[in-house]
Design a protein that fits this description.
The complex is a heterodimer of chains A (281) and B (124). With 281 residues, chain A is of the alpha/beta class. Helix content of chain A is 35%, strand content 29%. Chain A is globular. Chain B is 59% helix and 6% strand. Chain B contains five helices and two strands; from the N terminus they run H-H-H-E-E-H-H. A two-stranded antiparallel ribbon of chain B has the order 1-2. In chain B, helix 1 packs across helix 3 and helix 2 crosses helix 3. The chains are: A alpha/beta (281), B mainly alpha (124). The interface between A and B is medium-sized, with 23 and 17 residues.
Chain lengths: 281, 124
Amino acid sequence: MVKVDNLVKTYGDFRLDISLEIPEGTVTGIVGKNGAGKSTAIKAILGLIRPDSGHVSINGKDASALTGSEKAAIGAALSDSGFSAYLRVKDILCILRKMYPAFDEALFTNYCHAQKLPMDKQVKDFSTGMRAKLRVLTAISHNAQLLIMDEPTAGLDVGARNDILDLLRQYLVDHENCSILLTSHISSDLEGLCDDIYLIHDGKIILHEDTDTILSSYALLKVSEDVYEKLDKKYILSTKKEAFGYECFTNEKQFYMENYPGIVIENGNVDDLILMMTGGK
Amino acid sequence: MHIILNNTSMVPIYEQLMGQIKSEIINGSLKENDVLPSVRSLSGQLRISALTVKKAYDRLEEEGFVITVHGKGTYVAQADRQLAMEARKKTVEDDFAAAIQKASAIGFTKEDILKIVEIILEDY
């Protein structure tokens, strides 16, 4: 559905250089630390910034050549909604109605009601959580085949995060073939929603793996120094020195479980992945 | 269908899912031709990735428990319950065999092993 080929964008000494693919019907997550290039990647895919080289194609068509109606089939939620803070939800409703031919007004109104977004309050008086919900609702209310979300859950409490993730899950159930691309650094968001995860660091993709594989085959080994000496390091991806010895990150949990029955092995998760792959040695 | 997943377990999520669907088929709460929830809806309910659910469904299909009809859904296959039960028995036997192997490796005798089994059984 979306294909990014050797996309390069340079800002001073920051260089983004990525290739990725979002197949139809999948949920893809981009994770990474702040400043790793997640938002730049999203903006480049949406055609909001002009890449230095490489290209992005959406449904086989170059992203920069998309027509208005093709763009209307993409639902995007960026860090800022772009609506004036002095507008009320009912004003935004009028804009959306004009902007998207496929805008589903009943759905939008129902969701606003369910998520307790008041129709006649100005957006500037909304809480962070309410603004985030408004951004997501805007993206999912016009039957888009592709949703692109930059940190849809950033800065929200656990309840509001779940509300947003459940909205996306419901969207996936209602739109069998739609795809979602989202960025986040909250691992539980990604583990429970994404099929596919890209880890981006210093503008480069350093790992691409199925979420399922990360959760079932990646693990954190905690070993003392003498065990570490004897450990077969064939499948160790990165190691970090700790007070008790070493923390080792592996993508072959089974191997170490079978061959070193005594050592402490914890299931890997996306947090470990980010910490160990971008911070370890 | 009642699925309870343990996210901290060492058993991969798709295996937990497979195991619980199999149990429901074997004990008869899921009957032949019952339709399983769609991949997307089950992944939404369980808050796990759709790919994990798909993997579990695919493996169940390989093992003959379900049939996926493209565009229609996944159904419980014409179950050979006898066969399913045999397969289950086999895995339990394998678990016993592995435990006995471990015990022998550190010098347990047949009597030691039987004694342990008796002690454990007393608690049931």
